[in-house]
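Lecture notes, continued. The same structure-token format from the folding unit now serves as the input rather than the output. Read the line below as a description of shape only.
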């Protein structure tokens, strides 16, 4: 399970300023953002490889090695990185080239490309991209690097405050996520992520991206202790409901979800206990897009205990 990692204020501000310069260079375009325009502005190339076909992979690497000192000196480094880390996309700094795995579902190309563009915008990432230490970074450092690229991708693909303003003009819901998906041209999953994060510190929201929650629809590899691919918490949720685990929340959500093969799976109002031991009411709803179940929970109100009056 991956949680949305919070960057330091200084790092986030630095990355956001770099994204703003790109959008300003494009004349602050209307959504959806055309990534080919971004690549042209930044002088980036895009190519594809097939990780499970050694011949095609070797042919791709051979083209990249031309005039690439880093790859030329270690011709097997890129292949090793792709295979050992099961990479589906990567950025090669000395060639200013983004590579995407052709077998990646087309719907995921946009986010993967945006993520690699994010790496290209951050000069301090260049030293670790495909260098010897890219395979020996500590897990915490690697997680931080990927979180920074994800933050850059999110701010770029969702046009910074343009998305935040649009999202906050709507009441948080799966319907709002679907509407914003169509406007900004990104996937439901990445849009859910941005909706939860865009409400900042003022409202507890929580999102989950998982397999189908209904017991009859769970895969053979389902782990009840680690049921979600992503557990997304707004700053206010992290601050007030930090003790709530994804396993607990997934169990609660499973209770109202039907076994439908797609579309809305159900909704309910659930009581969550905050970090001070108080009961708080949330509205939850879950939608299955036939690949992932997307769950959104939003805070409603405190639950006041009713004390009996003795006569």
């Amino acid at each position: 399970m991956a949680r949305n990692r919070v960057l330091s204020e200084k790092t986030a501000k630095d990355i956001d300023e770099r994204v703003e310069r790109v959008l300003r260079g494009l004349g602050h375009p209307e959504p959806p953002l055309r990534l080919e325009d971004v690549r042209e502005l930044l002088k980036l190339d895009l190519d594809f490889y097939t990780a499970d076909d050694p011949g095609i992979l070797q042919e791709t690497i051979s083209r990249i090695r031309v005039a690439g000192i880093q790859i030329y000196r270690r011709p097997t480094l890129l292949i090793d990185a792709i295979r050992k880390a099961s990479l589906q996309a990567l950025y090669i700094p000395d060639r200013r080239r983004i590579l995407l795995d052709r077998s990646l579902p087309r719907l995921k190309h946009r986010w993967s490309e945006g993520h690699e563009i994010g790496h290209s915008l951050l000069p301090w990432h260049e030293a670790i991209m495909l260098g010897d230490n890219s395979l020996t970074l500590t897990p915490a450092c690697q997680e931080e690097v990927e979180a920074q690229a994800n933050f850059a991708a999110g701010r770029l693909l969702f046009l910074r405050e343009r998305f935040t303003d649009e999202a906050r003009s709507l009441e948080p819901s799966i319907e709002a996520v679907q509407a914003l998906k169509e406007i900004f041209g990104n996937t439901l999953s990445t849009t859910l992520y941005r909706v939860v994060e865009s409400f900042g510190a003022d409202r507890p929201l929580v999102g989950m991206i998982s397999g189908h929650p209904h017991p009859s629809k769970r895969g053979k590899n389902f782990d009840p202790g680690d049921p979600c691919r992503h557990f997304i918490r707004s700053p206010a949720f992290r601050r007030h409901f930090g003790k709530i685990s994804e396993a607990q929340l997934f169990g609660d959500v499973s209770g109202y979800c039907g076994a439908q093969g797609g579309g809305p799976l159900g909704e309910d109002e659930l009581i969550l206990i905050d970090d001070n031991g108080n009961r708080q009411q949330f509205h939850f709803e879950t939608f299955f897009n036939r690949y992932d179940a997307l769950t959104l929970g939003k805070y409603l109100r405190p639950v006041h205990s009713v004390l009996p009056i003795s006569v």
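Point for the exam: Residues 2-157 form a domain with the Arc Repressor Mutant, subunit A fold (CATH 1.10.10.2910).
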